[in-house]
Design a protein that fits this description.
By secondary structure, the protein is α+β, with helices and mostly antiparallel strands. It is built from one helix and eleven strands, in the order αβββββββββββ. The chain has one domain (33-196). It has one helix spanning 17-72, and strands spanning 75-81, 88-91, 100-101, 105-108, 114-120, 123-129, 135-139, 145-148, 161-165, 170-180, 188-196. Strand 6 (123-129) and strand 7 (135-139) form a beta hairpin.
Length: 200
Amino acid sequence: MQSRSWNKFSVKRGFTLIETITAVGVISLVLPLTFAIFFVILRQQAQFTALKTVKSESENALYQIKNTIKTSATKTCKRILDPDSGVYKIDCTATCEEGDDQDKFYFLDSHGNAFRFFIEDEKIASESVLIDGTTNVYVITSEIVKVFPHTSSSEINPYLVRCTYQGINPLIDINFELSFNSQSYSPRVIYKTKLRLNSK
């Protein structure tokens, strides 16, 4: 009679139905939770990046405006619309008055060139009018942000740059609100500062 030897390690055993159901149940609970945590982290990272971009654009715009006015402006001139030609002209026999915003006056540099800052199409831009009459417009902020003149409850007319007077030299208010150009998340940064024009 032939004897059979059984190797106990040769017996293969599969998962039971209970074990399979338990494993599927655990996975179905853990997987959505993992994705939820991942998307929360991803959203927070996107919000941080958007806020960082907004702050960087704001600080760059503010620096360019302040630095240009402080280093180049020698006086202010009125921006007057010629009723005959319909073209704006620079009148340097008059200076900006208290409450004049960026649409009503220019700054004049030591070479006789005029410049101003304004908001157009939700961007901060600068316009320079050279002494020969050539006009150049330079956009300061990029497409990824939107700019608005910040308006408080006490102000009726929003402005980017406004002229006020305290003493001999005019005091210049700079005021804007900048946000990320996105519908899902739009952090906003408000910048308000003043500087005195040192007329030369």
